[in-house]
Design brief:
The chain contains three helices and six strands; from the N terminus they run αβαβαββββ. The chain is of the alpha+beta class.
Length: 107
């Protein structure tokens, strides 16, 4: 009897549209180093299953958990005189399996 192997699907255009960009802050960097969690901006229409499928297809890692947060937009002033807004976005905190690593900063 043959051993079951994990079938890795190829990344599609939709997978690249789901994951937009990494969120780089001090907190997300410490989460990445200590708890093996990666924080990324995702499409506003994406759900947990789509994010998990896209992450596994694009980066080739095993995803354990996906948490999604809608970050609201904020009003701000620029130089005390000009009013504006900082746009909101949807972000996902993806937990990667132990022993697997993801290098977002390839040289």
């Amino acid at each position: 009897m043959a051993k079951a192997t994990k079938k890795v699907s190829k990344a599609t255009v939709h997978d690249y549209e789901v994951i937009i960009a990494p969120v780089i802050t001090e907190k997300t960097m410490s989460l990445m180093q200590e708890q093996n969690k990666v924080t990324v901006k995702v499409s506003p229409k994406a759900n947990r299953a789509e994010v998990k499928k896209a992450f596994e297809a694009v980066f080739g890692v095993k995803v354990l958990n996906v948490n999604i947060v809608n970050v609201p937009s904020k009003s701000t002033t620029r130089g005390g005189r000009y009013k504006g807004t900082i746009s909101g976005f949807k972000k996902a905190v993806v937990t990667i399996a132990e022993g697997e690593a993801l290098d977002l900063f390839k040289e």
